[in-house]
Design brief:
Layout: E1 3-8, H1 12-22, E2 27-32, H2 38-49, E3 51-54, E4 61-63, E5 70-73, H3 77-80, E6 85-88, H4 95-102, E7 112-114, H5 121-131, E8 138-141, E9 146-152, E10 156-162, E11 165-171, H6 180-191, E12 196-199, H7 203-209, H8 215-223, H9 243-266, H10 278-285, H11 296-301, E13 313-315, E14 321-323, H12 328-331, H13 334-347, H14 353-365, E15 371-372, E16 375-376, H15 395-401
Parallel strand pairs: 1-2, 1-6, 2-5, 3-10, 6-7, 7-8, 11-12
Antiparallel strand pairs: 3-4, 8-11, 9-10, 13-14, 15-16
Helix pairs in contact: 4-5, 8-9, 13-14
The structure holds 1,4-dihydronicotinamide adenine dinucleotide.
1,4-dihydronicotinamide adenine dinucleotide binds at residues 9-14, 33-35, 38, 90-92, 94, 116, 143-144, 147-148, 328, 332.
Length: 403
Amino acid sequence: KKCNITIFGGGNGAHVLSGLSSDVINANVTVVDTFQDEAERWTKAMAENGFTVKYGGGNDLVQAAGKPKFTVTKEVQKNVVNADVVILCMPAFLHEMVLTSVAPHVPETCPIVGLPGQPGFEYQALYHLRENGKKGSVVSIETLPWACRISKYGQEVDVIGTKECIYYSLVDQQTSGYFGAGLVQLVQTLLGAKPVLKREENIIKYTFLYRPTVHPPLMYAKWKNWDGKPLDAAPLFYQGADDEAVKYLDGATNEMIKIADFLQTKYPDMDFSGISSMQDCFIGEYPEQIKDKSTLLTCLKTNQAYDGLVHPMKKTEDGKFIPDFKYRYLMEDVPYGLLIIKQIAEMADFPTPIIDEIILWAQTKLDAEYLKDGKLCFVDRKRGRIPMAFGIKTLDEFVNFCK
Ligand code: NAI
């Protein structure tokens, strides 16, 4: 029997995933893209010019014009009622909208996969499924398997890099259909040999491993004293770091490590090991590319993998550059990362002065109020994913919710 796979999304990652998974024998892939006229554009482009996932070096995956192996549509309900697996492949701020429209219509045991899920996806997806009396499993994959960019919409996507190994979390609610190891094996088959999917059992630790303490501190250190004047060029993001950047990178990360140490004493049966310092984390990820590993600063400045990576900027009318505070470095990593860490810290009764300082600045750039008088405010589910928005107010509730 064919496996009906419904992919939600229409961006870079969704392009790669659709191409790869539809190439798998017995996978019947439908892409649901509700954004603007993307579904029509994608369908037309693919019919006329075929569909290519470009790796270069003769390894491209090509589907010929007129013979697409998957369909793209705007229709949600029709393509969800018979799904065996639903995969969300899009920025996290869209998850609430999609889960709201999907959960009422999925079959009772249909699993939902966040690819990527990013922190908090588990309880958000479980919340929507349970609200609708559904028992599907939830898989959250930490990040997108590829660095990728669409070169021609609906027609061609470049894979710039594929990760070696990525973590996922899994919550099973039933024992029929796709669940557990079989479900993960299916996702692995769709992705191919790499990246290798590795399970992280501890949901709280999984949230820490995502490390929302990289991008926001670097943004804060660079722009907190910015005078508002446009720049002639975009500054380097990692290699342009200075002592101030190190102070916040290390500061926020060390607060997170301290929370983990505390949680380890509170929950001795859960594993909180391996949440390493920022410096060790970079060295672990780029053992070959970092030329001088002596300090966190030299790790940032001499990592060849970061050659040419600049701050997210917008161009002004006269060709100058201003920082783009709505880019995912703040837009995703604060409401779908740092805020979750902040609530975990509050639930553990742990102060986080550095993380607070970063959130207080970031919220002025994101036009939201997340922190007030040192306390996390209630954040509406459309604008963030803090546990309390899903009824989770204590650490025990957090742990039990994701069981
Ligand atoms: P993307 O930026 O290509 O997503 C854009 C797509 O999202 C649009 O084409 C549209 O289909 C949908 N969309 C945007 N606004 C919408 C709206 N208001 N309503 C409905 N749909 C809307 O995303 P991409 O690059 O595929 O990334 C997915 C996730 O993976 C993101 O969280 C990203 O941060 C993360 N990621 C991406 C990497 C990459 O190389 N592309 C690398 C690592 C992580």
